[in-house]
Amino acid sequence: MRDLKQIVKAYDVRGVVPDQWDAELSRAFGAAFVEVVGADAIVVGHDMRPSSPSLARAFAEGAAARGADVVEIGLCSTDQLYFASGKLDLPGAMFTASHNPAQYNGIKMCRKSAAPVGEDTGLVEIRELVQSWIGADDKVTVPAADASVTVGTISQQDELQAYADHLRGLVDLTSIRPLKVVVDAGNGMGGHTVPTVLGGLPLDIVPMYFELDGTFPNHEANPLDPKNLVDLQVKVREVGADIGLAFDGDADRCFVVDENGDPVSPSAITALVAVRELAKAKAAGETEPVIIHNLITSWAVPEIVAENGGQAVRTRVGHSFIKQEMANSGAIFGGEHSAHYYFRDFWRADTGMLAALHVLAALGGQEQPLSQLTAVYNRYVSSGEINSTVADQSERVAAVKAAYADAEGASFDELDGLTVAGADWWFNLRASNTEPLLRLNVEARDEVTMSKLRDEVLAIVRA
C-alpha cells in the first residue's frame, strides 16, 4: 500500500505526477479537506503546470461531493489564492509545486482568511483520512457522503484585478520617480500577475520568460539557487535597469537584484520592509509594533527593528510557525531569509508581490541607486545556506555541538536545529525534513571570521 507520508510534507502535499499521486487521489484530498476543515464552501486555484488544471478540478469535485460549494479562480499565484481566501473568507487550496521541476505538483491548503494548514493544524488529519481510504491494492475508495448531504456547486470567479487593487491600495507607487524594472517570471505565475499588478505605474517593465510554461524551458523557477538568477543579472546590466525582480514558480517569493546585477540579501529586504511597516504602524498610533524574523535572518534585522521603535520576535523557519507567531503577537510583518514575506494587511500570509511593491516604492521615493539604499541594511557577512548530505543528521549535529561546547563566550539554543553564537559570529545547523541533508548558515562581522567558521563547521559535518 502506498504511504502518503511520502508526499504529505510538513506544510503541503508535494510529489511526482502520476507516479506518486494523480487525479483520483486529488479527489480524495478534496473530500478529506472539507471534512477536516468543516467547510461548506472553499476556493481553489492552480498554477501553469500541465497537470494542475485536472488535479484542481478533481479536488473540487471531491469537495463538492462532500457538500461544499467550490469557487474556482483558475490560474493564479499562491498569494492570489491567499487573497481570495481572505477576501471571500473561505478555506482554500492552491495546486502548485512551487519551484520544483515540471514532473512535480502539490497542494498548499489554508483555512478561512489564509490561516495555515500544516502538520500541526490539520494536515496530519487530512493525510490519515485519505490514507484510510486506500486499499491494499492501492485503489482509492472514498465513502459516499451521508444521504442528507447535498452535492455542492462548482463555479468560476476571476480575482486577479481585485488582488492587484488590494496590493496597490497598500503601497502607493503613483508618485515615485520612473524606474526601469527587469522582471524574470521564470515561466511561472509571475507572468500572469505582474502585468496586472504593475501595469499603469511609472515603471518601464522589461519582461523575461513571462510565457506560462510548466515545463520551465529557460531555467528552474527557483531564484534561491544562484544559477537561476544569472539571466536576470545579465539583463539588468545590459539594459541599465534600476532593479531586477525574480519570482519563483508560484510567485509567492520575490528575489531582488540591484542596478549592478548583484543580489540583495532577503535579510536586507526584510529590514527595509520592516522599517516601512513600522513607520506606518507608528503613524497610526501603535507603540512598539512587532516584527517577526526567522532564526537564520541576519543579526541586522532585530537591530534595525529595535532602532526603529519595533519589537523583534525570533521564530523557527517555516511559514506555519511564522503565521502562528504573527497571530499570537499581533505582528505587522514577518520575513524569512528564503524570501518569504508576511503581512498583517494580507491576512498574515506571505506575498512576494507586496514585498516587491515596498522595494519599488522605497527605491522610487528617493534618488539613490538600490545598491546604496540597501547598503545600510547589510551589516554582516553571511555564507548563504550550504547543504551537506549526511548519513546520520542527529549524530553530525551532536558532533558539532560537542566541538563548540567549550568555545569562549558561546551560547547555544535549539529552537530550530542547533544555533551557536559568539560575540562576533553565529551559525545555525538544521536538518531537512524531507532529505538526508544538514543546512548550514553562518554569519560574522567580517569575511575572515565567517569563512573560517564556515569551513570549521563543514569539516565536522562532512567528516
Describe the structure.
With 463 residues, the chain is of the alpha/beta class. The chain folds into 4 domains: 4-158, Alpha-D-Glucose-1,6-Bisphosphate, subunit A, domain 3 (Alpha-D-Glucose-1,6-Bisphosphate, Chain A, domain 3); 162-260, Alpha-D-Glucose-1,6-Bisphosphate, Chain A, domain 3 (3-Layer(aba) Sandwich); 266-375, Alpha-D-Glucose-1,6-Bisphosphate, Chain A, domain 3, CATH 3.40.120; 381-461, Alpha-D-phosphohexomutase, C-terminal domain (TATA-Binding Protein), CATH 3.30.310.50. Helices cover 35% and strands 21% of the residues. The chain is built from 14 helices and 21 strands. The chain has helices at residues 23-37, 52-65, 78-88, 123-132, 160-170, 190-198, 230-239, 266-283, 300-307, 319-329, 352-364, 370-375, 393-403, 447-461; strands spanning 13-16, 41-46, 69-75, 92-95, 104-110, 154-156, 179-184, 203-208, 243-247, 254-257, 263-264, 290-294, 311-315, 333-335, 341-343, 381-382, 386-389, 411-413, 418-421, 425-431, 437-444. The strands form 4 sheets. It has a 6-stranded mixed beta sheet, with helices on both faces. Keywords: Isomerase, Magnesium, Metal-binding, Phosphoprotein.
What's this, in brief?
With 463 residues, the protein is of the alpha/beta class. 35% of the residues lie in helices and 21% in strands. The mean pLDDT is 96.
Task: Report the end-to-end length measured between terminal Cα atoms.
Answer: 38 Å
In round numbers, the mean pLDDT is 96
Fraction of residues in H or I helices? 25-40%
Strand order, biggest sheet? 1-5-4-2-3-6
Question: How much strand content do the residues show?
Answer: 15-25%
Give the C-alpha Rg: 22 Å
Helix-strand category: alpha/beta
Number of domains: 4
- Tell me which oligomeric state these chains represent: single chain
CATH superfamily of the largest domain, by name, is: Alpha-D-Glucose-1,6-Bisphosphate, subunit A, domain 3
Organism: Streptacidiphilus fuscans
Cofactor: Mg(2+)
Protein name: Phosphomannomutase/phosphoglucomutase
Domain Alpha-D-phosphohexomutase C-terminal: 385-458
